[in-house]
Design goal:
The protein is mostly beta strands. Helix content is 6%, strand content 45%. It has a domain at 298-340 and 352-565. The chain has a 38-stranded parallel β-sheet that branches. The chain is elongated and about 85 Å long.
């Protein structure tokens, strides 16, 4: 079946000024075979009939934009991109438009920066206090205040991102457009009812998919390869609601799935992620009601799960379940407190303030059924085509629950978790007693005084059915808890650090029950208690490999720790 629309009929639905200016782009008539994936009732707007040529050299921006405008004015339909390579600059999508890339079709981002323009409707700076909107507002494909828009494959969107990367010694990129003037592959602002499915995104100049203040969005069966430039994020959500990612594979150079601002009611499932930096990175206002399940995180050299809460923010009801973290560094970091300014490669300029008037809130965060293999990033092959350095703190961290001052983490739980750690902690690291009150990137504290879990300022901490194994010697305790209230550890299996070190170290820990712990290797002491420790009970388990079950520091009364075998 073919659909034929006359030139007069097509132009009658467009504004007179637009039609007159672009009349040369419009066909006298057109007819296209309908692809099987497109409903029979849909109007089809084939970009070839608007002048596009799929030779990879002829700029097709105006033809694609004209097809979008015609589809929008017709109150909906399909803009069809047939097999071929179509060179484009910035194109704006409109409401009720489905952009369909056929098998063998590629939208190729121009390598000439003059073919792009900013979306002036998207403010820079965003809402007061939200720095996440300062990253530019240029898109290869973008939409503003649109509804019911779809981007679908099985074709490819190629951003030619290497053309936007600065050369040696800060020389301008070949495109002439760099920094925050680079185009995002897909930029959506305040859109509703968005669907992106069955597409391949490669070689983005900046973030691949960047959504700002969008609601009701579905992302299905996408392949993203974004490793040719700095800040090559995969998904980047800012203050979005009701967004759902399913069946996607992301290989990125930076945050694979960032959730900034106030994100609510988000689900991420059945996907795989690999990146040099974080996968799930949280920061900003209010993040709540978010689930991540049935995902593989592999070759992630830079904290796969990173939650950083600043004063005034709130992170609540976030669940991670059924995850494999294979070959990762610093797998989990949750922080709460003011972030200092940080200079790359140098110490922070100032520590976080001990007291803040409006401390952030982090509570009800769960991790269930995780299998984690931690590696030393210095011995892993590079993911990016340029050298990336490592910070000392990256090399010696695992699970960090780090609040400071009058900030707290509340109701943090781990159930059915297995962690294999490479070791390498020294006696000097084991001797660390005070970790700087620094919040921000997970490596900023330097090496932590625990190889498995470091927890500070936590209320309601639960670890059940967890196993922590060492692949080489590490002289630090497995657990180091500081100012922790109301915690329960059940069926925890630990590798002992060394005969000269305690397996667990508590300082100012209150109301804690350890049920059926098990020590895999010899240690001088199972539990070392110091400071204001009280109401700690060890119930059952196998502590036979420890020379002593408990060692009490100065000021800790014998009744503070009870051992029941």
């Amino acid at each position: 079946m073919s659909t034929v629309i006359s030139r007069r009929g097509l132009l009658s639905g467009l504004p007179a000024a637009w039609a007159g200016k672009n009349a040369g782009l419009m066909p006298f008539h057109w007819a296209s075979s309908r692809p099987n994936a497109i409903p029979a009732s849909a109007q089809i707007f084939d970009i070839r009939d608007f002048g596009a040529r799929g030779d990879g050299r002829t700029l097709a921006t105006r033809a694609l934009q004209a097809a979008v405008e015609a589809c929008h004015q017709a109150r909906g339909g399909v803009v069809y991109v047939p097999a071929g390579t179509y060179l484009i600059g910035t194109v704006q999508l409109k409401s009720w438009v489905t952009l369909h890339l056929a098998a063998g079709a590629t939208l190729l981002g121009s390598g000439d920066g003059r073919d792009y323009y900013p979306a002036r409707e998207i403010p820079l700076g965003g809402v007061p206090g939200d720095a996440t909107l300062r990253d530019g507002h240029v898109g290869l494909l973008y939409a503003v205040n649109a509804e019911n828009i779809t981007f679908e494959g099985p074709g490819t969107i190629d951003g030619q991102g290497g053309q936007f990367r600065r050369g040696p010694h800060g020389t301008p990129p070949p495109s002439g457009r760099g920094g925050d003037r680079r185009p995002f592959q897909l930029l959506l602002y305040r859109c509703r009812q968005v669907r992106v499915r069955d597409l391949t995104f490669i070689r983005g100049a900046y973030h691949c998919l960047r959504l700002v203040e969008c609601r009701f969005a579905w992302f299905d069966n996408l392949h993203i390869f974004n490793r040719v430039n700095g800040n090559n994020d995969g998904f980047h959500f800012i203050s979005c609601e009701y967004a759902h990612v399913n069946g996607c594979d992301v290989l990125s150079g930076d945050d694979a799935c960032a959730l900034f601002g106030s994100c609510r009611n988000i689900t991420i499932a059945n996907s795989s992620f690999s990146t040099r930096w974080s996968v799930f990175r949280f920061g900003g206002g209010t993040a709540e009601n978010i689930t991540v399940s049935n995902c593989i995180l592999h070759e992630v050299y830079g904290c796969p799960i990173k939650i950083q809460c600043n004063p005034g923010a709130r992170f609540e009801n976030i669940a991670f379940a059924n995850l494999i973290l294979q070959n990762v560094t610093g797998p989990i970091h949750i922080g709460n407190g003011p972030s200092p300014r940080y200079r790359r490669g140098r110490p922070p300029l100032a520590p976080a303030s001990a007291e803040v008037t409006d401390p952030g809130m982090v509570r009800n965060i769960s991790f269930n059924h995780l299998n984690i293999r931690v590696v030393d990033p210095r011995h892993q092959p590079g993911l990016l085509p340029w050298h990336v350095g490592y910070r000392t703190g990256e090399l010696h961290s695992c699970v960090a629950l780090n609040a400071m001052g009058n900030s707290w983490l509340e109701n943090i739980s781990f159930d059915d978790v297995r962690i294999s750690y490479p070791g390498g902690g020294t006696a000097a690291m084991a001797a660390i007693r005070e970790v700087p009150e620094i919040s921000g990137e997970y490596f900023m504290n330097g090496p932590l005084p625990a190889w498995a879990v470091y927890a500070r300022n936590v209320r309601g901490l639960e670890l059940a059915n967890v196993r922590f194994e060492l692949r080489a010697t590490d002289l630090r305790p497995a657990f180091n808890f500081v100012n922790v209230d109301d915690c329960a550890l059940a069926n925890c299996t630990l590798a002992g650090p060394a005969r000269s070190t305690a397996a667990m170290r508590f300082e100012a820990v209150r109301n804690c029950l350890l049920t059926a712990p098990r020590l895999l290797a010899p240690a001088a002491v199972f539990l070392e208690a110091a400071g204001d420790c009280r109401d700690i009970a060890i119930d059952g388990g196998d502590l036979g490999r420890a020379a002593r079950p408990v060692q009490l520091g100065a000021g800790v009364v014998p009744a503070a720790v009870t051992v029941r075998q």
